[in-house]
Amino acid sequence: MSRRVRRKVGRKGKEKVVLPSYPEIEDEVSGSVYNGFVDWTGLPDDTVIQLFSCLNDRDRASLASTCKTWRVLGISPCLWTSLDLRAHKCNDAMATSLASRCVNLKKLRFRGAESADAILHLQARNLREISGDYCRKITDATLSVIVARHEALESLQLGPDFCERISSDAIKAIAFCCPKLKKLRLSGIRDVHADAINALTKHCSNLTDIGFIDCLNVDEMALGNVVSVRFLSVAGTSNMKWGAVSHLWHKLPNLTGLDVSRTDISSAAVSRLLSSSQSLKVLCALNCPELEGDTNFAPRKYKSKLLLALFTDILKELALLFVDITKKGKNVFLDWRNSMNKDKNLDDIMTWLEWILSHTLLRIAESNQQGLDAFWLKQGATLLLNLMQSSQEDVQERAATGLATFVVIDDENASIDCGRAEAVMRDGGIRLLLNLARSWREGLQSEAAKAIANLSVNANVAKAVAEEGGIDILAGLARSMNRLVAEEAAGGLWNLSVGEEHKGAIAEAGGVKALVDLIFKWSSGGDGVLERAAGALANLAADDKCSTEVAVAGGVHALVMLARNCKFEGVQEQAARALANLAAHGDSNSNNAAVGQEAGALEALVQLTQSPHEGVRQEAAGALWNLSFDDRNREAIAAAGGVEALVALAQGCSNASPGLQERAAGALWGLSVSEANSIAIGREGGVVPLIALARSEAADVHETAAGALWNLAFNPGNALRIVEEGGVPALVHLCSSSVSKMARFMAALALAYMFDGRMDEYALVGISSESISKGVSLDGARRMALKHIETFVLTFSDPQTFSAAAASSAPAALAQVTEGARIQEAGHLRCSGAEIGRFVAMLRNPSSVLKSCAAFALLQFTIPGGRHAMHHASLMQNGGAARVLRAAAAAATAPLEAKIFAKIVLRNLEHHHMEPSL
Q: Any bridge partners for residue 107, and if so which?
């Protein structure tokens, strides 16, 4: 896998992240510069405090530790009115250490049950706002104790994850303990009973904003008694009795905004609420199937009230809230924020609308419903971009997450909707997201980076991200101490590193070093960040230059560490893929050898071939295949149990993906270059699965299987095994029918090895009885093989061209034959001296077919420009092959093909200046 998208779950120089500009601070700093150095200790206290306010909590604490003066300033009450603990694993000890700074804490955001339990240790009794997510494990007891210790609480929000273990008992505790409560939003409560709602009505007289979202059951009658409520959301809540709702809730005297999105509300209930309520201004009913299915419903007849639905123009409707009729169209939220004439009622409505729209759009995006393309393209994307500019941080985060989510079609296959992605780009979304990513708020950094990562799956968006400076920003965020931020930034670099366009820019921005450092920083407990970092490094390592940078940055050690120690299959897969790509540049750098020499690397990869996860097995086999091109690695893999493991892998992958089959066969092909390994593979039972893979219809699979069988067939014992196990028909079929020239070529060479006479000698020694017992006729197999070898060679023999070459032997004529016979990929094959010697000896074989096949093979191995042509020419020169070639070219009884091909090989030797003087 080369990229990843996620639905819901975070240069202006090579080492800097661009931060917001604060001119007032810059003026103070410029006054403290002496001889090019800044005297930071000479800054006024208020300037230092302003600097502190631009930092997140972690960086603020780190900066405060530098000197006594700044330590005192760092705990100034004005800096600790708000605290976001979502990025930290906040336990009791951490909360206790923060307690002295939290005396004046007013706003707290946390994540998870452990952090909820630790809130009490902050001793922040003046808290006004608490917001938590990942609340599934928070219990009634925990929530009851929290609200009992924070009686001044005015706002409590838990969600959007379901609060499965919170019941009406905890809601009653909230009512009894928090009389000043103004806002209560809870998600995923199973049952909200009447007694709990009545307790809120009785004890929380200032409660104006209620949200019981995605609940199973809510008592509608009791909600109709909460006369203080101005804004009410029951979005996603099931089992609502809409008849009762429409007869009761319109009587609520202060109800201004009502959100019934993602429910089964009927058009009749909507009509009654809009026509009967005296106070209602906005009814939000997005993604309500029954309402949307009523073609007779006419929303425009309620002129003084707004209905927001998928079938209405939402931004145009919102513009009707304003007296100034110029406030319309796509910029309605921006116009409101910039308005000089403030209207508190309008501000309250728009603030609430931002929250509920961001929440509902995210939920719709997560559901990935069919049939919403028109909505997303026409107004959904624009709404999310508007909401990303909100002054409410949680709204901005959800809008960014919504953008990251609504473009995704298929998480597993990393598929996104290109039309939606490019709609975001056209509306200026890339620049907005990058601006959010520059924020010092880590929650915004994380969600913006996630959106950039998903959108960058589209090549046009990736180009726009790069042009807007996004690569530098993501490389900077990858250095974050916040794991969620680093994880999403690594995901962005992963997707941007697909293809060749942006690899160099990522390296220039310091992205390679940042990714390697991430692995060491989060080596335990960070599966998500490790997978993304390894995936990005795997993509980068496919480039020769970047591959070297990965190695220089310590990437080999980091990736081997993951392969050895990490138990998460996604990390294992990407680490193995990265090592495979690092080892793929054996001719241009030393990474192949370096990976093999790293302690435990080969053993770890051999072990991963036994993983229960196919993707891990595939990438591990691919890495071993690439590593086997190095002579020392090849023997070390065998010593680490690689032969046994890869044979077992090949035996078990008959129903696996073509990718795994190809790599399993390829790794055995690579190992079988060594004769000792080739014999071991035969003895371990490797012949049978390779024959089965040679029958695959996938060209990549049967090509690698043919290569492995060619190597195995060099050994006469293996050759006989291939015959016995029915390999001849499989190779004959490849030789005559494969769409891959290489597969046909190697199948022909395997058959030539098997029937050049050496196997016959071996069979006579004592194994021929096995052949007979299996009903194999060597003579019949030989005739079949030679017939198809001859047919294969003749496909490269144009009669007219050969006649011209035979008549003149002119260079031009021979060059024309060469061009017609050349198999481009064969130039990458590297043969040993023994293999070259065997083909030279085959030129003397009594079989005219084998003579032609041998000459044809030597032609392929010596064509100028081939990767190993010089090596092969040198072997032939040292073995005295020129004399044999001349004899073959002049032999009266030799077939024409053998003569012409032999002449061409002699010409190739002359080209390489290797022919000895006789």
A: 82, 129
